[in-house]
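Readers outside the structure-tokenisation community will struggle with the description of the input data as it stands. For illustration, here is how one protein appears when written out as sequence plus structure tokens:
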Amino acid sequence: MVSKLDACLNAVSEVVLGKDPQVRLALTCLLAGGHLLIEDLPGMGKTTLSHTLAKVLGLSFQRIQFTSDLLPGDILGTSVFDRETGQFTFHPGPIFAELVLADEINRATPKSQSALLEAMEEGQVTIEGATRPLPDPFFVIATQNPFSQGGTFALPESQLDRFLMRLSLGYPAKAAEKALLQGEPRRDLLPRLQAILNHTELAALQAQARRVRASDALVDYVLRLVDATRSQAQFASGLSPRASLAILAAARAWALLADRDYVIPEDVQAVLPSVVGHRLRERSDPIGQGGGVLVQWLLREVSVL
């Protein structure tokens, strides 16, 4: 089964060139059952990465383009009166897919952004008083533009906390960009991609990731990292228990991708920037852009043993 994970990594990396670490982290996030936030400039391959993951994992895919006039009903769906039956018929929105791309999520108003909260946390949505389950599996990959760009609304902390990981793709290396320029357009490769995993195999791999062993010493290391954010003055607020669980879940999935059934400190260190960077804010930083600096402090100052 791990060989299929390697095949997934290779297939995605053939489409998204020169981004092997980010591809591995993105697959780690989905193996851990979490949602992914990708923050970067337009044109960096965020949408292509999302669509490629859906194809190789065999997931139904829907893209929601977030704009300032987007309404919650455009995401969740709405009931329409049927004259023939004299009843209202529910028409599900694009949220009812296995992998939903919330494209440029921070261009929508907070009211529309909040339509995702219940879906991401509970795997269900409440519409017009009725609770409707979402598909299983269900993942959200959201993209957002940097806050310096006009027409953006910052995601509230409650929304950010629903994302297991936040990634940035960044500019490609010269060799990768040259291959990109000389090769086929990446979007043309997508229709030819075949699903490598089916739903049963994906569920089995997620269950296997949850069973990866974490020793008492490893858990104590995670607790020391979390406690440092709660006790040191430079942190505006400490990491929540949800963040502690996220660190361990991501480390287990990262270990599984490395074909190990136990977690080592290097697994925690590999996933920590992506798991907690968007959850941390310096006390002197009101807009929360200093999370990366705080993560590096944690990695440097908190002892493994």
User: Anything to note?
Assistant: The beta strands are 35-39, 61-65, 77-82, 87-92, 99-103, 124-127, 130-133, 139-144, 163-167.
